[in-house]
Amino acid sequence: RVEKPDYAERAYFEGIVNALIHRTYDFRGTEVHVEMYDDRLVISSPGDIYGGGELEPLDDGSYISKRRNPILADVFSRLKYMERRGSGIRKIIEATAGLYG
């Protein structure tokens, strides 16, 4: 019997990084939340999509990267936690698809 994890570690990591980088820090006492259910993992952070509108993927599956917190993004990039290319959501999708075949 081969056991598979409920969530792809890479997808979880990318989701947390995205939530921290793109959240608003304008409101005291707010935080990133991670909720685990039987059929999904929900990561939420304070604030709307930065710049308004909706996320629309580019042809390669990445997104135009709009940084709400450029200094924090720079630190995470230097730590190799992110690439600063708008590829986090694509990586989450790919890691999750790889988990289930």
Description:
The chain is mainly alpha-helical. It has one domain. 35% of the residues lie in helices and 8% in strands. The chain contains three helices and two strands, in the order αββαα. A two-stranded antiparallel sheet has the order 1-2. Helix 1 (9-22) runs antiparallel to helix 3. It is globular, with a radius of gyration of 14 Å. The mean pLDDT is 82.
Main sheet properties: 2 strands, antiparallel
Query: What is the CA-CA span between the terminal residues?
Result: 16 Å
Helix percent reads: 25-40%
**Whole-number count of domains:** 1
Number of strands: 2
Strand percentage: 5-15%
Radius of gyration: 14 Å
* Low-pLDDT segments, ≥5 res: none
Strand line-up of the largest beta sheet = 1-2
Overall pLDDT: 82
What is the helix tally?
Answer: 3
Backbone shape: globular
Q: How do the helices and strands follow one another from N- to C-terminus?
A: HEEHH
Pairing-aware structural class of the strands and helices? mainly alpha
Key traits:
8% strand; globular; RecG_C_sf; two-stranded antiparallel ribbon; 101 residues; mainly alpha; single chain
Question: What's the layout of helices and strands?
Answer:
Elements: H1 9-22, E1 33-36, E2 41-44, H2 70-78, H3 88-99
Antiparallel strand pairs: 1-2
Helix pairs in contact: 1-3
